[in-house]
Amino acid sequence: MFHAPLVIAADGNSARMALSLNIRRREDRPLGVAVRQYYRSPRTHDNYLESHLELWEGKPGASRLLPGYGWIFGVGDGTSNVGLGMLNTTSAFQNTDYKDLLRRWLNGLPPEWGYTEENATGPVRGGALPMAFNRAPHYRDGLLLVGDAGGVVNPFNGEGIAYAMESGRLAAEVTVQALARSQGPSRERALQAYPNVLRQRYGGYYTLGRVFVELIGNPTVMRTVTRYGLPRPTLMRFTLKLLANLTDPRGGDALDRLINAMSRLAPAT
Ligand SMILES: Cc1cc2nc3c(=O)[nH]c(=O)nc-3n(C[C@H](O)[C@H](O)[C@H](O)COP(=O)(O)OP(=O)(O)OC[C@H]3O[C@@H](n4cnc5c(N)ncnc54)[C@H](O)[C@@H]3O)c2cc1C
After folding, report:
1. What residues are in contact with ligand 1 under a 6 Å CB criterion?
2. Where are its TM segments located (predicted)?
3. Full-prediction pTM beyond 0.85?
4. DSSP class of residue 53?
């Protein structure tokens, strides 16, 4: 048996520590699924990430466009990391065979890229993407949740690494403040600040992200934005900044200021 005055749970999406305190997943928050595989490929030295927005439920063009995207990035060691992620804002979510979806998408790519079974260097691996604070409260009874354990994946793009690291830093800062106080109400108040710090940092932006995932869960919206939005450079610059969370917080250009203002105005819940 181990005892500690505070525990920082960084145990990922399994969230065993949180579950032991009965802190459950919030059903009103989005969840994603991602699968990926490595392939030997001539594209291993690509120095950019390529995104494919067209993932079809059935045959391309003949069925529903799914809310998600495929990615390809060069690893530089002879392989590419190729995968896809999808949101639970569509009825297809529960019934999708993700390995099959990956294979069908890859079958439609140029064969010279090498994303075929014989070039795979390992099995398909996958996991859940817990988004937009989908587990809360982030502090209770001496336990702080960081990263996937606290569901801090960005709902716009499914990225969770930077957010896991940053929530870890925020939790560490709060912990240092708290442990400087003597045990009791004063320390407890310091620890209670952690969920507020997280909300201030991401709350408004994640609220916008939740609206976004609801919208793209509608196949008509998804089709319209990919067909009419993609060819418009200014709209795409705006979309890239918003989806990748790449705005300059100190001002930047008009697009940065617009997105920062939207994030500030959106309720941080
Ligand atoms: C296929 C896929 C692709 C992804 N691609 C990207 C991407 O390109 N960019 C990006 O930003 N994010 C990506 N993500 C999301 C990202 O991987 C996660 O958000 C991120 O790893 C979360 O970090 P974490 O430290 O909170 O949890 P994890 O990385 O899951 O780490 C938790 C660790 O705790 C360990 N653990 C759990 N329980 C116990 C226990 N009881 N005892 C001991 N150890 C335990 C686990 O073994 C694990 O090592 C992807 C996710 C998937 C599934």
Report:
1. 10-12, 14, 16, 34-36, 83, 126-127, 129, 147-149, 153, 159-162, 164
2. none
3. yes
4. -
Nearest CA to ligand 1 atom 8: 159
**Which of 232, 230, 30, 39 has its CA nearest to residue 132?**
30
Rounded to a whole number, what is the distance in angstroms from the first to the last CA of the chain?
36
Tokens of 102: 């990956």
| Residue 35 CA, distance from chain mean position | 13
Tens digit of each residue's pLDDT, the chain (269 residues): 888 999 999 999 999 999 999 999 999 999 999 999 999 999 999 999 999 988 888 766 567 788 899 999 999 999 999 999 999 888 778 888 999 999 999 999 999 999 999 999 999 999 999 999 999 999 999 999 999 999 999 999 999 999 999 999 999 999 999 999 999 999 999 999 999 999 999 999 999 999 999 998 888 888 888 888 888 989 888 988 999 999 998 888 999 999 999 999 999 98
